[in-house]
Amino acid sequence: MAFPQDVHVRICNQEIVKFDLEVKALIQDIGDCSGPLSALTELNTKVKEKFQQLRHRIQELEQSAKEQDKESEKQVLLQEVENHKKQMLSNQTSWRKANLTCKIAIDNLEKAELLQGGDLFRQRKTAKESLAQTSSAITENLMGISRMMSQQVQQSEEAMQTLVNSSRTILDANEEFKSMSGTIQLGRKLITKYNRRELTDKLLIFLALALFLATVLYIVKKRLFPFL
């Protein structure tokens, strides 16, 4: 039958081994970690907790060794405690190395990101300059189109004004033609009236001449032929 003290020693050893393996696993994770810094901080916090638990169990095992009745068993347990302490120191050394490796990796990553950021900044600057040039070209084209449209509008206004002036000229000419047409009609009427009056005058002259000749003939007849 195992004594309670032996059971406690066995449990301490088991937990020391378990904590030791967990610490080693976390140290491996730190060595493989490439950032960010918050991830490294979180892993280190877990390692500290495991070291505290491991240290506490080693102290319990050391206390149990000191309480052993047999000197031989006491020395065996104290040797185990010493081995666990050495292993813990080795783990702490590995922990510091893993942290150094991780920090170097993080620094290199940050430098690469800064370089990429510089390239990205230059790319963005180039893109902005290209965009500005494109915008300037588009603005210039729009201004050219606006000027062209303004010229077209001005030409349309001039053409419209010319049409208005032409229409006014045509209307004035039409009025003049109407006035001339009235004058021509009046002249025609006057000419027709004059022609009629001339015919009447000719007829009257002819009648007067005939009457005159008849009178002359009558006088001549009376004088030359009184007996007739």
TrEMBL record:
InterPro entries: Sec20, Sec20_C. Residues 37-87 form a coiled coil. This is BCL2 interacting protein 1. GO terms for biological process: apoptotic process in response to mitochondrial fragmentation; endoplasmic reticulum membrane fusion; retrograde vesicle-mediated transport, Golgi to endoplasmic reticulum. It is a single-pass type IV membrane protein. Pfam families: Sec20. One of its GO terms (cellular component) is nuclear envelope. Keywords: Coiled coil, Endoplasmic reticulum, ER-Golgi transport, Membrane, Transmembrane, Transmembrane helix, Transport. It is found in: Endoplasmic reticulum membrane.
